Amino acid sequence: MQNVKDKAYEVLRQRLIGGHYRPGEQLKEEPIARDLGLSRTPVRNALHRLVEDGLATDGAGQGIRVSEWSDWDVEETFQLRMLLEPYASFLAATRGGEGLADELEASNQRMEAGIAAGHDGIGEVQSANRDFHHALIEASGSPRLKTMLATMIDMPIIKRSFYIYTPEELVQSLHHHCDLVIAIRARDGELARQVMQLHLRMSYHRFMKHRGEYRADA
């Protein structure tokens, strides 16, 4: 039964992260259960877990709906990431070694190929970016950081925003990733911390610059 619950949760979580459902859309148990070929019980359990993750809301009389992200939600998420993820990068640089550097380099190569492919490659850019950040958090060796940061990195509004960035902005982001690999190979935790701080601050300003375009696209 636990495997069924986990399956429902993982499928729905990936759908929300990937933008399968629109912000504010109601998530109804019966049609979702029918779509997944499951009973309503594991779907109900999964929906409540998504509410706990902040990916969905459960308002009185409103049902469970896909979260809508206000400017404050975005601001808070970036501020939390800027506090926590540079520390995770510091730890990863001191603990990860060459194996981590090679893994990050492979993600960067995928990201570079996605950027070169233009609009058709944005999905690969998203995937490579996610893998890069998650690899750093995993290498930090901190279960607490992993728990706190996982949902913030996968925030749907940020993931979908890749579609409105210019190629030059994506290349700038990739350059920060490359600098982080240098820091990892050098086992320079302080450099990794500073580069991630810059990377996230630039990402925040980039997102806010395009916020109006995102609203129009949504």
Structure description:
A hairpin with a 3-residue loop joins strand 1 and strand 2. The mean pLDDT is 88. With 218 residues, the chain is mainly alpha-helical. Helix 4 (71-95) packs parallel to helix 9 (167-185), helix 4 runs antiparallel to helix 10 (189-209) and helix 5 runs antiparallel to helix 9 (167-185). It has helices at 2-17, 29-36, 40-53, 71-95, 97-116, 122-139, 143-153, 156-160, 167-185, 189-209, 211-217; strands at 56-59, 63-66. The chain is globular. Helix content is 75%, strand content 4%. The longest helix is centred in the middle third of the chain and has 25 residues, at 71-95. Strands 1-2 form a two-stranded antiparallel ribbon. It contains eleven helices and two strands, in the order αααββαααααααα. It folds into two domains: 2-64, Winged helix-like DNA-binding domain superfamily/Winged helix DNA-binding domain (Arc Repressor Mutant, subunit A, Orthogonal Bundle); 69-212, GntR ligand-binding domain-like (Four Helix Bundle (Hemerythrin (Met), subunit A), Up-down Bundle). It starts with a helix and ends with a helix. Keywords: DNA-binding, Transcription, Transcription regulation. This is GntR family transcriptional regulator. One of its GO terms (molecular function) is DNA binding.
